[in-house]
């Protein structure tokens, strides 16, 4: 693909008799290097003529040649064509109003857009910060605007306000995410997509007159990289003029010292640079909102009436409402949208994609589909999750098995112990029974001897006296031991017998308890 | 310049719009100032336009470009003066910046010398299709970067002007093949080149359809449509003419019928479609006619004025391309053709199971599968329809 450097000056062929032959020559020349040389004197003249007739084209970079035109071509209608296209598509603008309850956010929106938007005022008893979003269709002459107003409900009402900024940041991110998802789709319809990204954030500062609250600082710091912040002082009819200037200075210095980047109106285009520059100095705007119309002089104007005077909303000496309207709507709406798209959204996109693991440095691979790689990564992640789940399941099963084995062993042990004890018990029982048996035998033997002895005693009691009884008792005591031995003397004395009978009785009792 | 196209209600033309409440404004707010803001921004950034001219040698392509933009874009080559016909098709591209009333336009003209000049012209459209797709590819690569530029330079071909030789008969097979392949990738505007060799009747014959009476055989004269018929026909009509040709082969040239958005568009575009293809004459010399300086071709029997509607239809072409439909050409390239290419490209490298938002490239039934969300625009069906046709197409 080569570049033929056409487009050298010469255009007006009829501007003199000299030109035709030279252009003939220049036409027939094969290389363009020859042509300018041969037509040099004529070219200079014609150039002057051509330049006089047309606009002087400015050289734009990258080595593009600027070529003057010989007549009216007609592409100066291009901006109009573009505008027509945009009109048929319609515009959309999204404003986010952040501020404490009761600072007049809804009233200000009503005043800005000269209409009454629906909605009832919020209470102070919200448990957390929520965002309420409404979309309206506005039409002015042939321009249709789809306006979305999002406002915080319950901001600054809680006792613990540490997490107050989170719902706001999440909402903004959600809008970016929705747009990113649409952009990454394979089949997308971006030109008819309803853009819900927030283009401007109006931050309402309470008119204390001292300085910014720490909640304000923290919230603004979190929001400044995500959205264009325009701080405004709400209900500024509560501050006097001198206090106001001091308040503004204090606010701006606090913002600067904390590194909060608020939206600066663009000053690079000459047409609006001046007005934007002066407006930048008036930030933050001190505004008053009112939807009531009062008769002042002989006109109906939006104003607030106090016993000591009337504050006119559209009076530049009273408040900066007119400035806000100018800047927000009439001068910079397009710039706000562009900044949101090219700066904040791109930043979000970059962070999100890097987080998902994409890199730009893949020159040899085909343009992978972002959606596809995203799917791949998601599947990978799901696969990992599943693997982990499997592992855990296996571990659980293993542990259950181990425990079961343990318990089984313990059960076995217990059984053994039980058996052992039972055996022991049986042994002892047997022993005792043996003993009992032997005792029974003894008792029987003794009974026999006792009967025999009694027989003898009845025979001998007539012959002997009580002396022998005493002697026998002593003898019995000494002969107690010998009673159990087999082969006991056939005729034991009576005292011995009774002692033996006592002992036997005791033994019998014991055996009875043992069995 | 065509009149302001008013769209009835913006809310009806959104695919995914939330529930909206119409609101009446009680006073002037100043929303319409956004139009001026748009204009300022556009003028500061400048515009870009890329045009490609395709046709056999000697049909006056370079001259036509010079005439269109009233400047010496190209050195128009004259045959037989030692310029060898290129053996293969080469594409040459020139970029210029032209300015008018503060509006800067960066114009890129791509020429295709050698097209259709060989004996065997098989696949001579491949380099052209390759070039067009290459531009789409470049843009796609820029778009999917993580850190991308604020304004991606647009080198995609917005319009392809196809020069049909003035045979007076019908479209040649080469023309039909080329048009069929190209009309799905880029906006194609066919023109009858060197139309000064055709009379007015022949032009109309060449252009308009012929309604065949039943039973007529090939070679006889058919009944004419349009009031241009006279008895003095020089050559018998022997086949369906260009518009009929285009219709038979399913070639949709710009402005595409399926992309008309509303009634106004339809009305405007059908007028244009009736006159397609334009019979044009190119000239970059000026002559004096009746005391005026006009661009024209001087012959022994008269001067053909390029900008005279009675002589040729060059003003129509110029108005279409530059004055009224330039932005539309760019928009259709961006929203339809580029999106189709993107869908094709991103789909071809996927091996994963599909999720929401994926294209089903199998031939779809007449009721086109719609993406998620309610359909209120012709936007999604446009893309669907083209994608459906692309499925059996090699790029």
From TrEMBL, chain A:
PROSITE patterns listed in its UniProt record: G_SEPTIN
Comp. bias regions, Polar residues: 16-25
InterPro entries in the cross-refs: G_SEPTIN_dom (IPR030379), P-loop_NTPase (IPR027417), Septin (IPR016491)
Localization of this protein: Cell projection; Cytoplasm, Cytoskeleton
UniProtKB keywords: Cell projection, Coiled coil, Cytoplasm, Cytoskeleton, GTP-binding, Nucleotide-binding
Domain Septin-type G: 89-355
Primary localization: other
Pfam families to which the protein is assigned, alphabetical: Septin (PF00735)
Coiled-coil intervals, chain numbering: 371-449
Presence of the UniProt keyword Hydrolase in the record: no
Molecular function, one GO term: GTP binding
Protein name listed in UniProt: Septin-6 isoform X2
Originating species: Physeter macrocephalus (Sperm whale)
Gene this protein is translated from: SEPTIN6
From TrEMBL, chain B:
Compositionally biased region (Pro residues): 367-381
Keyword GTP-binding: yes
Any Pfam family matching the protein: Septin
Cellular localisation: Cytoplasm, Cytoskeleton
Record's keyword annotation contains Nucleotide-binding: yes
UniProt-annotated stretches for the region Disordered: 367-395
One MF annotation (Gene Ontology) recorded for this entry: GTP binding
Gene3D superfamilies the record matches: P-loop containing nucleotide triphosphate hydrolases
CDD domains to which the protein is assigned, alphabetical: CDC_Septin
Alphabetical keyword list: Cytoplasm, Cytoskeleton, GTP-binding, Nucleotide-binding
Cellular component GO terms held in the UniProt record: cytoskeleton
Bias-annotated ranges (Basic and acidic residues): 386-395
Family: Belongs to the TRAFAC class TrmE-Era-EngA-EngB-Septin-like GTPase superfamily. Septin GTPase family.
Description of how the protein assembles with itself and partners: Septins polymerize into heterooligomeric protein complexes that form filaments.
Organism of origin: Physeter macrocephalus
Chain ranges of the Septin-type G domain: 45-348
Function: Filament-forming cytoskeletal GTPase.
The protein, known as: Septin
